[in-house]
Amino acid sequence: MSVVTPHDAGAPVIELAVPLVGGSHRRASAGTAGLEVSAADRSTRFAQMRAGELGSLHSWELVTAVDGPGTRMTAFLAGCPLRCLYCHNPDTLEMRHGEPVTAVELLARLARYRTIFEVTGGGLTLSGGEPLMQPAFVRRVLRGAKELGIHTAIDTSGYLGAHCSDEMLDDVDLVLLDVKSGDPETYRRVTGHELAPTLDFGRRLAARGTETWIRFVLVPGLTDDEGNVDAVAEYVATLGSVSRVEILPFHQMGRDKWESLGMRYELGQTQPPSPELVERVRGQFRARGLTVH
C-alpha cells in the first residue's frame, strides 16, 4: 500500500508496506503531539464535555489503508464499556487516562490535511476505545468535519449504538462495525457484555443505508468455531449496506500494554491463525456473496 507522508512535523505518521488491522486490534500509540491540551479547571472541563466542546483523547495519527479509505486522520478517544480479551489498546479503556482536547483544536488540526484527503480519498476516523462513549463530542467533531467537506467514519463495536442519534449518523459517511461474535455466549466471553445491541445497531445502519465495513477478529480457540463464523456471516449478509468485510487475524502486538498496566492477559499462549484457517473463514463470508478482505 502506498502512503502519503505529510511534510508536517506535528503529524504522527505510520508508513505501511502491509496494512495493519484496525480498531481495537491495532495499537494506538502516537499520543497527542501537535494538539493543545485544555488547561481548564475540573468543573469547567466537565461542563465542556457535557456540551461536546471537550473530549478525552488518547492519541491521533495519520495512516493509510487502515481505518477506512485513503489517508486518514484517526483519533483514538479514551473510554470503552467492553473488556475484550484481545484488546490491543487497554490503555484506552478509561476516559480518565485520556488528554482533554477541544473539538475546535481537533478540527483545526484536521483542516490542515484537507488536500491530502482530497488527493487520496481519505478523511477523519473516530476510533478508540469506543467513540460512542463520548457522543456529544463525537457529534460536534463530525459536524465540523462535514462543514469542512471531509469524509467521516466511526470505528465502533456498536454496543453503544443507542448513543448514536440520527442527527449524528447524518454526518457519518462510513461505519466500521466490529462484530466480535455471532454467538451470544462467545460474545459475552470475548467482551463481558451482550451481543444484541451490536446486532441492533447494524440493522439500524442498514435501514438508513449507511455504508458499513464489517470487522471480525479471528482468534484461534475463541472466535474461530465454524458455527460462530457462520452466524456472523449470515447476519452480515442480511445487511444491505455492507460494502466490505475485513477478517483481522489475531496477533500478540498488544500484549506488552497489558503487562505494563498490570492487567492479566488471558491470551498469552494463543497463536495467530494459520493461513488455512484465515482462508476458511474468508470463504464462509464469500459463500454469502460478501466482499472480503
TrEMBL record:
EC annotation from Swiss-Prot or TrEMBL: 1.97.1.4
Cofactor note: Binds 1 [4Fe-4S] cluster. The cluster is coordinated with 3 cysteines and an exchangeable S-adenosyl-L-methionine.
Pfam families listed in its UniProt record: Radical_SAM
Molecular functions (GO terms): 4 iron, 4 sulfur cluster binding; [formate-C-acetyltransferase]-activating enzyme activity; lyase activity; metal ion binding
Broad class of the protein's primary localization: cytoplasm
Listed Gene3D superfamilies: Aldolase class I (3.20.20.70)
KW ATP-binding (keyword) present: no
Span of domain Radical SAM core: 66-288
Cellular component terms (Gene Ontology): cytoplasm
Enzyme class of the recorded protein, top EC level: oxidoreductase
InterPro entries reported in the protein's UniProt record: Aldolase_TIM, Organic_radical-activating, PFL1_activating, Radical_activat_CS, rSAM, rSAM_sf
Location(s) in or outside the cell: Cytoplasm
Entry-linked NCBIfam families: PFLA
Function: Activation of pyruvate formate-lyase under anaerobic conditions by generation of an organic free radical, using S-adenosylmethionine and reduced flavodoxin as cosubstrates to produce 5'-deoxy-adenosine.
Protein name: Pyruvate formate-lyase-activating enzyme
Organism expressing this protein natively: Cellulomonas fimi
Gene responsible for this protein: pflA
